[in-house]
Amino acid sequence: MKITIRNILNFIEGNTKLLGDKIHLLPQHEKEQVVYRSQICQQDCCQLGYCIQCGCNLPGKFYVTESCNPDRFPNLMSKSDWAKFKQDNQITLE
Q1: Does 27 reside within a domain?
Q2: Would residue 93 count as lying in a domain?
Q3: Looking at the whole model, is its pTM more than 0.85?
Q4: Which tens digit of pLDDT belongs to each residue from 68-87?
Q5: Residue 26 confidence class, pLDDT cut points 50, 70, 90
Q6: Residue 66 contacts by C-beta under 8 Å, 6 or more apart in sequence?
Q7: Which of 25, 33, 24, 27 is nearest to 84 (CA)?
Q8: Residue 38, domain member (yes or no)
Q9: What is the pLDDT of residues 45-56, one digit of tens each?
Q10: 57 - beta bridge partners?
């Protein structure tokens, strides 16, 4: 992974939100999107422990608002946009 200001800020954002999730401060719609991202990346990134697109460590990268791979999954969305995205793409999370 290349060290850049953007990557440093993404690391801080992702790990801050990860901590927020651990102490139950992350909104449900963001939790669901983290689960969705992890399911999409189950066969590659999750097994390696880092994102194959940008090289950032997991699970913190799943919490970053901006997607490093928009072809795979979008940026984190608002509650209403996420509800529409789930409906449009027939996404169910357990």
Answers
A1: yes
A2: no
A3: yes
A4: 999 999 999 999 999 999 99
A5: very high
A6: 10, 75
A7: 33
A8: yes
A9: 999 999 999 888
A10: 50
The total number of structural domains in the chain stands at 1
Range of the domain at 22: 5-85
Dihedral sign computed on CA atoms, order 68, 18, 20, 7: negative
3-state DSSP assignment of residue 25: coil
Tokens representing 33 are 């999107």
Question: Is 78 in contact with 27 (CB distance < 8 Å)?
Answer: no
Structure tokens at 1: 């992974």
CA dist 42 and 48 (Å) reads: 10
**Highest mean pLDDT: which range of 3-7, 55-59, 86-90:** 86-90
In degrees and rounded to multiples of 5, residue 50 shows phi and psi of: -150, 160
Task: Say whether 88 sits in a helix, a strand or coil.
Answer: helix
